[in-house]
Structure formats: C-alpha cells, structure tokens
Specification:
Elements: H1 4-16, H2 21-46, E1 49-51, E2 55-59, E3 70-73, E4 82-85, E5 93-101, E6 104-113, E7 119-122, E8 125-128, H3 135-138, E9 139-143, E10 148-153, E11 162-172, E12 177-187, E13 194-195, E14 201-205, E15 217-218, E16 226-230, E17 240-249, E18 255-265, E19 274-280, H4 287-296, E20 301-305, H5 314-322, E21 325-328, H6 335-338, H7 342-360, E22 366-367, H8 385-395, E23 399-400, E24 405-406, H9 417-424, E25 432-438, H10 444-459, E26 463-464
Parallel strand pairs: 2-6, 8-12, 14-18, 19-20, 19-25, 19-26, 20-21, 22-23, 24-25
Antiparallel strand pairs: 1-3, 4-5, 5-6, 7-9, 10-11, 11-12, 13-15, 16-17, 17-18
Helix pairs in contact: 4-5, 4-10, 9-10
The structure holds zinc ion.
Zinc ion is lined by residues 280-281, 329, 333, 370.
Length: 480
C-alpha cells in the first residue's frame, strides 16, 4: 500500500494539469456560432440585403447592370431582388433607384459618369530622316464615350536616324486620361526611287506629238516620290536620235535618271495639214460603204466603236484591214451606267477593249468619251467625273480625242448631205482637223456626203491619217 501512495499522488497531479481540448473546442464553437447564427438570423429577418454603395457610378454609354450594386443577399440569390429605377447611360447625370426585397426598400443614388480614359491603340512608325510625322501616324485606333483630345510628346522633328520614344496622351472632356507609348524609327534613305517597265527606246515620226510616258514611281521610304521628265534636248520636228531623261527623286534627296532614246524618223508628210475623219457608234450596216469610199480615195479614218450591233462585229476586222484605226468609244453607250463612277467607266472601257481585241487582235489605246470630254450629261450622274477621267485615262496610257469640226450628222437623222459637206469642210485651213461623224444605220447621208468631204480636204492639200497616241491632242474644255 505504502508503495502505491506516491504513484497515486503523481497520478492526481498529472490529471490536474490535463487540458480538455474537446471541451475548449466545443465552448469556442458555441461562443462563435451562436452569435453568428443570431446575427445571420437577425440579418435574414431585419436586414437581408447588403448594398455595395449608396452612390453607385454607372459608366457613361456602357450597359447598366441593375444587380451590380448588390453586395450580398442573406440565404438567397440576387434574382429574387427587384430593381426599381430608370437609368439611361446615354445621358450623364444622377437619378434615384432602389431594390425591393421581401417588402423592404433599399434606395440608392445612381450617377451616370465617364470615368474611363479613351481607348488608344498605337503603332510604331518607320520612316526616313526627312518625313514630317503627324500624331495620326502613330494612332492605330482611338475612341471614347465622350469627346477627347490627343497630344503627342517626343521628338518628331525631321533629323538624325535613330529610335525616338513617342508618348501619346488622350484626354476626354471629363479629364480621364490614357497614356501609351510608341516608337518613331528614322532610317537614313539612301536608295533612289525606281520605275518598273521603263521603255528605253521610242521612235516617232518627225512632227508627231511627243508625250512623255507616265510611270508609277516606287520608293522604300517616301510614299510620294517625284518624277521629272527633261525633254529639253528633244526636237520632235527634226529627224535624229535624242535622249529624254526621266529622273526620280525622293524627299531625302536621292535621285535616279532613266535615259530614253527617242528616234525621230523622217516623215514624208511633215508640214502637211492632217485631216482625221472620225466615225462614232459603229460598226453598223453603213460601215462597209464608208470603208469603200475611204479605199477608193486612198484615205483612212478612225472608228470609235461600241458593242451595240453584234451582227456587224465582223466589220471591226475590216476596218483594221482597210488601214483605218479602230478606237474605243464605249461598250454600252449608256450614260447613267458609264458615268456612275470611275470604276464603272473603266469597266465599260475594258469591255469594249476586250471585244475589239477579240475581233481584231488590236489592243487600242485611243479613246473618245461618250458625249466627248466636254459633255454635261455626266454631271447628272457624278459631279466632276470628267475632270478626273481626263487625267485618269492618260495615266493609264490612253490618248483621248474630241473633235474640232462637227459634221452635225447627230443633230437629226437624214441630214441633207450638202449640209453635212458644208459643216464638215468648215475646218479647211486648220493644221489638224478632227471631224466628228457617225457610223450608224440611221446616218446614211453621212456615207453619201463622205466622198465630197474627202475631195474638199484633198484639194486643200490635206493628208488623211488615223488617230494614234502620237497625234496632236484635240481636247474640248471639260465642263464637269
Ligand atoms: Zn457616241
């Protein structure tokens, strides 16, 4: 017994200091969960809906989410809350709204406000050392719900090659700011602009009209390189071999000269007056008679054809075989569609060009506008189109011709041949006469008048020639 005493004493002592973890945990759980349950219960019954703010900011011109201001709903989901209010995010300003939930109203203020800076996407700019650079060159896109201004900071002054940091700041009218950076990379441009498909040799007859070729010019860094043509050494009236210099240049001062050898050939007709007999709107049932008259008189003309009469397409080849020129007038001759826009015009021109090539093998570069370049009718369909087209056609390598003598055969059908002769011969005395006539079934009297017209010009010493790109231009004043 005596031996067991200390043992039991020790045991007692140990028990005294044992920590009852289970009890503590239970106590803690009770201490925390009871007030929490009470709190949640209180919330559930008296204040179940919590808002994020009582002054809610809705972004200008963005979609307004009526549930976005709900922080929590005790033991429930947002869908059972009803929002009341009328929020128009297209208009800046303040309005009242509220949530209705389990019989209780939770009011709050909604302010429609622009709080975000403009969207701004930049791009780097690579250019030469001479280019003037504008803010817009760095901006791929920019937008904002309200008006905004853009400011650029950095060295954009033309100068040394190198990489320059550029900062673009966009600020909207509510002072929200977006700042982005880009790079301006300036490279020294040491290569001159170039010309593709340069014609190194050209030959024309003495007295012909010399028009420098128009070439597109390309440069690696200058988007608008120049081309200067120096014809000062050329004398188009005197046979010989000449050089015409085509010099390209860019804004960095690089230049390259392409030399064109121009041969001026002897021209047996040099100094003679030239009569160009022109016939529009064919081929027709009258074409053969016109060709017969031309052949009988050793003369040639120029036929500005259309696609109007498939039954006479075979005459196109006969025109070429006779020695006359086949030239392009229009496929449809329909003013509203031909003059709708530049693309429509060139589409129509290409169609008649293709037809002529298919019938004759000739790709013609001589044209006459429907109604002439002075026509006013095109203004009904497109303001200013003729002013643009007269330049466009030349850039594409065409020569266009109007007329300086009108036979007046278009004024009516069956105009008395004597009247046509009188009008058509009114050009006698001029150096270059381009006579307007028509080749249609309704203009029989033109064919009848033709022998006398030819004879009158012959008697006055004229030679008859087809129109080519080397014929001196006869152009009207453009009215549209
Ligand atoms: Zn016509």
């Amino acid at each position: 017994m005596a031996a067991s005493k200390p043992v039991s004493k020790k045991k007692k002592k140990k028990r005294k200091y044992r920590i009852h973890w289970g009890r503590i945990l239970a106590l803690l759980l009770v201490t925390i969960s009871v007030p929490a349950a009470l709190y949640m219960g209180f919330r559930y019954f008296f204040d179940p809906l919590a808002l994020k703010t009582d002054h809610y900011i809705a972004e200008y011109k963005q979609t307004f989410d009526p549930y976005d201001n709900i922080k929590s709903v005790t033991f429930d989901s947002k869908e059972n809350v009803v929002f009341k209010g009328d929020v128009d995010t297209q208009t800046l300003g303040t309005t009242q709204g509220s949530y209705e939930y389990r019989g209780k109203t939770y009011p709050f203020t909604i302010e429609v406000k622009d709080t975000t800076g403009p969207d701004l996407v930049l791009r780097d700019v690579t250019t030469d050392t001479a280019a003037l650079v504008e803010d817009q060159d760095f901006i791929e896109s920019s937008s904002d719900a309200s008006q905004f201004t853009v400011r650029i900071d950095g060295n954009t002054t033309p100068g040394q090659s190198g990489t320059y940091p550029i900062t673009v700041t966009a600020k909207d009218q509510y002072d929200n700011v977006t700042t982005k950076t880009a790079k301006l990379i300036r490279k020294a441009d040491t290569t001159a602009p170039t010309i593709d498909n340069f014609k190194e040799k050209v030959s024309i007859l003495a007295g012909d009209y010399f028009q420098p070729d128009s070439y597109p010019v390309q440069d690696d860094l200058d988007p608008a390189p120049g081309l200067y043509v120096d014809t000062s050494q050329l004398d188009p009236a005197t046979p010989g071999v000449y050089t015409v210099n085509y010099t390209t240049s860019d804004r960095s001062g690089n230049q390259k000269t392409y030399k064109q050898e121009v041969t001026i050939e002897e021209n047996p007709d040099l100094g003679k007056k030239i009569c160009y007999l022109t016939f529009d709107d064919g081929p027709s049932g009258v074409t053969q008679e016109i060709l017969d008259t031309l052949s009988a008189n050793g003369a040639v003309g120029t036929f500005f054809v259309t696609a109007a009469n498939p039954e006479h397409y075979d005459m196109m080849k006969k025109i070429v075989d006779q020695g006359s020129a086949i030239a392009l007038h229009t496929y449809s001759h329909d003013y509203p569609s031909v003059y709708a826009n530049e693309d429509a015009y060139f589409e129509d021109l290409q169609k008649i060009s293709d037809l002529v090539e298919q019938q004759t093998g000739v790709v013609s570069d001589v044209i006459r506008f429907p109604g002439g370049s002075s026509n006013m009718v095109s203004a009904e369909y497109n303001q200013g189109i003729m002013s643009r087209l007269v330049n466009d056609v030349e850039k594409r390598g065409y020569a266009y011709f109007d007329w300086n003598v009108d036979s007046t055969d278009a004024s009516a059908n069956g105009v008395d041949p004597a009247t046509l002769v009188a009008n058509a011969t009114s050009g006698i005395g001029m150096d270059d006469v381009v006579i307007l006539m028509h080749d249609t079934d309704a203009k029989q009297t033109t064919a009848q008048a033709l022998p006398q017209i030819i004879q009158a010009y012959k008697d006055a010493g004229y030679v008859f020639r087809p129109l080519t790109t080397r014929s001196r231009p006869v152009h009207h004043t453009v009215n549209n």
